[in-house]
Amino acid sequence: MTVRGTGGPSGGNQNEGVAAPLRVGVLGIGSMGRHHVRNVRATPGLDLVAVADPAGDRFGVAGGLPLLGGVQELINVGLDAAIIAVPTVFHEDAALALAEAGVHTLVEKPLAVDVAAGRRVADAFDRAGLIGAVGYVERCNPALLDMRRRIAEGQLGAIHQIATRRQSPFPARISDVGVVKDLATHDIDLTAWVAGARYESVYAQTAYRSGREFEDMVVASGRLEGGILVNHLVNWLSPYKDRTTIVTGERGALVADTAMSDLTYYENGSIPLEWDQIAAFRGVSEGTVTRYALVKREPLAVEIEHFRDAVRGAGSDHVTMAEGVETLRVVEAVLESARTGESVRLS
């Protein structure tokens, strides 16, 4: 496929060596898609040329663009890249159509409704030689980016445990999946990414408290490669928003508040305790606490830049569809464990 925006035979200012903007379309301009529209418009090197949503433009983001009815109308406009932000049940059909049309695509998380569908989508983009990305925007959160860098540099030493909390009131935008596929999928993805290790096993319990078809609470625990213990507390029934990731290692703990993009380091103490009772109880002493000053950019803006760079062949920081499939494997294991009451081992 020739990408129109890369300065190839069908586009770009080759005389000056400056690539023309990529022609981008967004499918789904609801609660999440409207933010994609805003960020595509603001991202250098991208040109928003079409939007589509069969449900209409309830947030009024189309601007001067005509509102198209679906993915085929988007394709007919002529696109280099597309973003899929429709409900999860529609991801597979839309993504397969875009792959067949030769359009690089970013699919909002999760990649598809299940592992089988996710693999079909990933395989289609691989066969076509296209960039296929998944919208796990937490990987672009400043606090988690800095946390991952510090862990990779050895600041914590060996990692012992990763715990996440993701709690908030029920979002009216969700209608086709439960809290595991909508929220817990973020924690599953970011945990494996931050640690650089895959899940070996999971055990989970879910609850249905709001009268919906899908679960609205989950508690999941497990183990990653290398013996790292993990725990995820996720629900849609808390009257406050909590987005916390805690990584505990042999030298201390890094705590990310991803709602505020804050990162704090709790260092193990080096001053010996002279009170034997407390020393025996604590195991480690309390040391210096440091909150890092971070450059805080909107994570979605960074995610779209990563996608743009991948399409250009200038970067590889996007979440690949293969990674999206792996996260779906863990998501399905969580749901299976909750259904059977047994721990599930991932081969």
From TrEMBL:
The lineage of its organism: Bacteria, Bacillati, Actinomycetota, Actinomycetes, Actinomycetales. This is Gfo/Idh/MocA family protein. Residues 22-136 form the Gfo/Idh/MocA-like oxidoreductase N-terminal domain. Residues 146-254 form the GFO/IDH/MocA-like oxidoreductase domain. It comes from the Bacteria. It comes from Schaalia naturae. InterPro entries: Gfo/Idh/MocA-like_OxRdtase_N, Gfo/Idh/MocA_Oxidoreductases, GFO_IDH_MocA-like_dom, NAD(P)-bd_dom_sf.
